[in-house]
Amino acid sequence: MVSRVLAVARKTLSQFRHDRRTLGFVVLMPLLMVVVFGYTFGGEVHNVRTLVVNDDAGFMGLRASDRILENLTGDTLALETWTRGEVAARAEVAAGRAWAVLGFAANFTENLATGNATAVVDVVLDGSSPTIVSAVLGKLRAAAERMFAAGSAAPFALEREFVYGSEDTRFIDSFAPGVVALAVLMVTTIFSVIMVVREKAGGMLERLFATPLRPVELVLGLALALAVVAFLQSVVVLGAALLLFQVKVAGNLGLAFAILLLFGIGNQGLGIMLSAAAKNELQAIQFVPLILFPSLLLTGVFFPLEAIPSGLRPLSYVVPLTYASDALHSVMLRGWGIVEVGLDVLILIVYDTLTLLGAAVFVRRQA
Amino acid sequence: MAREGGPAVTCDALVKRFGDVEALAGVSLEIPSGVTFGLLGPNGAGKTTLLRIWLGLTAPNSGTAKVLGFDIPPRAVLPRIGYMPQDLAVYQDLTVGENLALFGRLVGMDEDAIERRTEEVLKLVDIAARRDSLVSTLSGGMRRRTSLATALLHDPDLLLLDEPTVGVDPELRAAFWSYFRELTKRGKTVLITTHYMEEASQCDLAALLHRGTLLVRDTPAAIKERAGAQNLDEAFLAFVREASA
Q1: Which listed site, A161, A175, A357, B168, has its alpha carbon 20 to 30 Å from A62?
Q2: How much is the pLDDT for A291?
Q3: How many Cβ atoms sit within 10 Å of the Cβ of residue A127?
Q4: What residues of B are in contact with residue A222 (Cβ under 8 Å)?
Q5: Which domains does chain B have, with CATH numbers?
Q6: Contacts of residue A209 in chain B, CB cutoff 8 Å?
């Protein structure tokens, strides 16, 4: 079993070695994606879950905090009144379930009205997404401007506290994990589709199955070889992100690679299954947009999932890139370990298992 | 080796349909061990389908078959079978040597044996000099020889060769046939399909297949004699006429 799997993996890598153009594609395409996205992309967010801990006791029957909240218009922030205390609210952010906490102390209105002390809004932020940090802070500033016309009393201060990242966390830092995963997705899927279509076309599958090779062994062998390729790509892409854009990695780089690898293996299984529907390489290439668009738009690569319209959100949870992207984001920006990203990793393992089994069934049928 | 004295390959009342087309219409055949056996018939006669059933690559709709004493699909004996399909089933983007190594590993040969047999087999099919060439850079005939080499590499007891001599020049074809005879002397069984009837005169036994039906199975000389024909081409036509009469 193992020797046959290794034999397939070895021949597949030899095929890559003989094909310089393909080898170039393996390295250059993900590199190009990182560079292009790195220089050009920015985005708007919606529905950022923000917890409001309002202890404001008011002053002379007025609560300024309520006025501020009223002025936080639009759908950028999804405000939620939180009554279980600031510590619990902060824990929600640390666990990745909320992006921000707005805290108003009991004397907020009093300080604002009397000027005895500076009125402070405590803003707790998950700084791993600069898009969200700037959206939250921008909204608060806009609300302040609306309430206090130019020349009036000094407005309140924003006391910022970052659970993850910092104010210096840049857009590129926040979406580098997603782009890395996306690059791996594209190339691994397309490659495995092309590989299997090629084997079908030359009568190779039939020839292989006239030896003791089992379909599942063939699939594992292909997956092993492509995992090597996926690993190389991860190195190139992460390397480019680290060197060209000085992306920060707060967590364990090894864990980040492991996540990419798990994701890549599942994609190969998916690619092999898709190849069942393709007669030649040209048809296989037509699957690209089918994979690309849902992955690009629905998975939180560029926006947090909160930014995706709620009607489409269920689809997001079906696209595997959602979990790979989330896990990488958490490891690279929040510095989370295996325990915290355990659920994502588990889902990726299930993804791998299902697609590889499916692939073995499809390959058998195509012989 | 097949079981003591047993036939190498058998089938009984095999039926295989593809949609409305009946590729095999109840074929029963026995091929003894240690012979060169020619399975003859025009394109579409059902030769390849029969080979694929013996290899377990496709299942019959009804009927039974055995290979080296094992029921189909013959997983247990696949390492003892060498198969050369009609398609050029070698990787174009691997070298000749890499192709051989792959198939050697898949049938469980160790690296030393692969190395030794690769030398021998490539000399035999006369492409030893191109061992490190990519298959895509070889001529059509050389590709076929590479394909034959992968089938011969592990010195199988049973060779199933689907049209092995297509596109091979006469000199080399003669070399192939003398090698096949040498193999049968060593007790191996060689089953060759071809639509070049005359080539099959060199077989120990031959069978004529026409539209999924077995017309005759005998020695080439006896087939010619029974049809009162000068050559196998004429004999084939005579049997077809007789069958449709």
Answers
A1: A161
A2: 78
A3: 25
A4: none
A5: 7-244 (3.40.50.300)
A6: 56-57
**Test mutation, B106, B150, B163, chain A, max A CBs within 10 A:** B106
pLDDT one-digit tens code per residue, A123-159: 998 888 877 888 888 888 888 777 776 445 547 788 8
Q: What stretches in chain B show pLDDT beneath 70?
A: 1-5
Contacts of A15 in chain B (CB under 8 A): 91, 93-94
Sort A196 into a burial class: Cβ within 10 Å, 0-12 / 13-18 / 19+.
buried
Mean pLDDT, chain A, integer: 82
Neighbours of A338 (CB within 10 A): 14
Q: Which of residues 199-258 of A touch B (CB under 8 A)?
A: 202-204, 206-213
How far does A206 lie from chain B, in Å, by closest CA?
7
Q: Which are the contacts of A285, defined by CB distance < 8 A and separation ≥ 6?
A: A190, A194
d(CA B173, CA B12): 32
- Report the C-alpha gap between A243 and A256 in whole angstroms: 16
Give whole-number Cα distances, A36 to A129, A176, A208, A232, B24, in Å: 19, 12, 41, 20, 59
Q: What is this structure's pTM?
A: 0.73
A291-297 average pLDDT score: 77
Instruction: Give the type of residue at A198.
Output: R
pLDDT tens-digit profile of A241-281?
Answer: 778 777 778 888 889 888 988 898 898 888 888 887 777 77
Token reading at B148: 């034959």
Spatial separation of the C-alpha atoms in residues A56 and A91, rounded to whole Å: 21
Report pLDDT for A349.
95
Q: Return the domain boundaries, chain A.
A: 2-40+171-366, 48-165
For B159, the 3-state DSSP assignment is strand
Residue predicted with more confidence, A255 or A76: A255
Q: What is the separation, in whole angstroms, between the first and last Cα of chain B?
A: 41
Indicate the residue type of A354: L
d(CA A325, CA A85): 31
pLDDT in tens, B71-127: 988 888 999 999 999 887 899 889 999 999 999 999 999 999 999 999 999 998 889
Domain A48-165, CATH homologous superfamily name and number: abc type-2 transporter like domain (3.40.1710.10)
* Predicted ipTM > 0.90: no
Task: Tell me the pairing of strands B21-32 and B7-18.
Answer: antiparallel
- pLDDT digits 0-9 by tens, A195-212: 778 777 778 888 999 999
Packed helices A253-275 and A321-329: angle between N→C axes, nearest 10 degrees: 170
Cα–Cα distance for residue pair A12/A204, rounded to 1 Å: 13
Residue A281, judged by CB atoms within 10 A of its CB (0-12, 13-18, 19+), counts as middle
CA nearest to B15, candidates B64, B54, B67, B85: B64
pLDDT of res. A12: 84
d(CA B117, CA B111): 10
- Percent pLDDT > 90 in chain A is 13
